[in-house]
Amino acid sequence: MSEKAVTHRHDRGSAGRRFVYVVRSRRAAGLSVGLNLDPQKTCNFDCVYCEVIDRRAIARHVRRPKIPAAAVASELAEVLSELGRGPERPRDLAFAGDGEPSTFRGFLPLAGLVFDARDAAGLADVPVILITNGTGLSRPEMREAHDLFAARGGAFWFKLDAGTARFYRAVCRSSVPFSRILANLLSAARRHPLVVQSMFFRGDALGVPSGAEIDAWAGRLANVVRQGGSLSLVQVCTVARETMEAGIHPLPATALGRIARAARAALPGVPVEVFC
Ligand code: SF4
């Protein structure tokens, strides 16, 4: 998915921390401070390209503990203080990690603590990003969190890997209906500008996304704009690291370029970037 897939599988275990880690991220083009709210890896998607864990091997519907906000904030303060003594500033702080952050109760107060810790560390100009599959964005606290991000120098990055419900089910393997993902995408993009991240790949079983699928995907994004949503960037990505399931391969740059051209044609004025 998503940027999550772009940053997942970085080493998170440094200094025995559970929730906060530092990675060198190609997305951020430098150091990124990751916030992982889901050490239990209980994502509500089961993407075929997931780099976190083979979700067929873990129990479904694991009860999630409440986020220990104080522990997250204290780990973050520690990490930012360590970085402050080093030569390189982080390029961003990103809620990404091993599961879907938008579904966690208590996200809003935690996000407030994260912005406060960032500002206290003298990094008020460093953006805070939520990388999300969108499933929890209709919750009232996530709407408020979106306002908070927009007001304090943050952004929501929304993962959309398909244009049709059929392809979505094949790639993301979630019980959340595609129609709800699209509704949450539109409503969030109407609230504040969104970055969209889309992952494309070649699968031994799935093949490559068809031209019709790509057109449908670009059409979904165009529809968001047509209905009053705002997209600040579309990122076309492919798998960059080993996936947990075999038979998933990156798309070549030429194929990614074709996908980006379809997006540019459908979304005049919206920047489209390719991550190979
Ligand atoms: S949305 Fe969940 S299953 Fe999909 S890549 Fe991210 S963590 Fe893995």
Describe this protein's structure.
The chain is built from eight helices and ten strands. The chain is of the alpha/beta class and 276 residues long. It has one domain (2-275): Alpha-Beta Barrel (TIM Barrel), CATH 3.20.20.70. The strands form two sheets. An eight-stranded mixed beta sheet has the order 1-2-3-4-5-6-8-10. The protein has a two-stranded antiparallel sheet with strand order 7-9. Helix 3 runs parallel beside helix 4 (140-151). The radius of gyration is 18 Å and the shape is globular. Iron/sulfur cluster is lined by residues 1-2, 4-5, 43, 45-47, 50, 52, 99-100, 133.
Q: Structurally, how many domains make up the residues? A: 1
Strand content: 15-25%
The CATH architecture comes to Alpha-Beta Barrel
* Bound ions, cofactors and other small molecules, one mention each: iron/sulfur cluster
